[in-house]
C-alpha cells in the first residue's frame, strides 16, 4: 500500500485500484438503497430535478409499488409513462410538471386512489377517456400549458375541486364540467374557447372562474344566478361588452357578493387602484370597476 497524490492505492498483480473510486461506487449503491428504503417507509417518492428520462423501474417493484402514496418527478425529461404505472394502486398524488410527456397510458386508469394529478407544462395532446372515467376520487386535475385540442368528459369527477386546462388549444370547456358538483376553481384561460357553458350554473361551490384571453364574449345568466359562491371571475383580454355583462341577469347579485366578501378591504382603500376595483372585465372608462378580480 502506498500514497499517490493523496489517494490510497492498492497494488494488485501490477494493477492499481483507487480506494477512493471504490468508496464512491459503494456510496452510490448505499444511497440508492437508503432512498428505496425511504420510499417504502414514507410512501413518498421525490425525484425532482433528477435529470430523468424515465421513472426508475424500482418504483414499480412488488415491494415498493404498493407503498407509493406520493410521486413527484417534476423538472425532468420524462417522455412517457410505462404501463407499469398501473401497479401504483395506492398512489394519491402524482406530480410530473415540466417534463416531455406527449400522452398518458391507459394503465393510469388503474391508479384509482389518485386525489391529485398535476401534469402542467408537458406536451400532452391526448388524455385517454378511460383515465378520467376511472379516477373518480380526483380532487385536483391540472393540465395547464400542454397541447390539448380536446378533452374527454370530466362528468365522473364528482369530487373534483380544482380544474386547470389553461394554456392549451381547447375550443370548448371540458364536457361534463357542469356536473363536477364539488368544483371550486376552474381555470381555462389562454384557450380559443368562445362560449361559457350555461351548465356551469349548477356549480354552487364555484368560487373562481378564469377565462382570461379566450374568445368569450358573454356570460350566461345561469352562471351569475346559479354560481352562488362565485366571487372571482376574470374575462380580461376577452371580446366582452362590459355594459352587456352588467345587464346580464344575476350580475348584481354577483357584484353584491364580491362587495360583501371584500367590504372591509374596500372600505380601508387597500384594494382600490387608479382604475377603481377590478371586476375582471376590461373597460374603456376608468373608475367604473366594482369587484376585485383576485
Overview of the structural elements:
The longest helix is centred in the first third of the chain and has 24 residues, at 19-42. Helices cover 20% and strands 14% of the residues. Residues 1-18, 21-29, 266-277 and 285-294 have low confidence and may be disordered. The chain has a 9-stranded parallel beta sheet with strand order 4-5-6-7-8-9-10-11-12. A 3-stranded antiparallel beta sheet has the order 1-2-3. By secondary structure, it is of the alpha/beta class. It contains 5 helices and 12 strands.
Topology:
Layout: E1 2-4, E2 7-12, E3 15-18, H1 19-42, E4 44-46, E5 70-72, E6 93-95, E7 116-118, H2 129-134, E8 140-142, E9 162-164, E10 185-187, E11 208-210, H3 221-226, E12 232-234, H4 242-247, H5 251-267
Parallel strand pairs: 4-5, 5-6, 6-7, 7-8, 8-9, 9-10, 10-11, 11-12
Antiparallel strand pairs: 1-2, 2-3
Structure summary:
By secondary structure, the chain is α/β, with parallel strands linked by helices.
Widest β-sheet, arrangement of strands: 4-5-6-7-8-9-10-11-12
Overall average pLDDT: 86
Which H/E pattern describes the elements? EEEHEEEEHEEEEHEHH
Q: How far apart are the first and last residues' alpha carbons, in Å?
A: 70 Å
Which structural category do the helix and sheet elements fall into?
alpha/beta
Note the main attributes of this structure.
294 residues; nine-stranded parallel β-sheet; disordered N terminus; three-stranded antiparallel β-sheet; alpha/beta; elongated; disordered C terminus
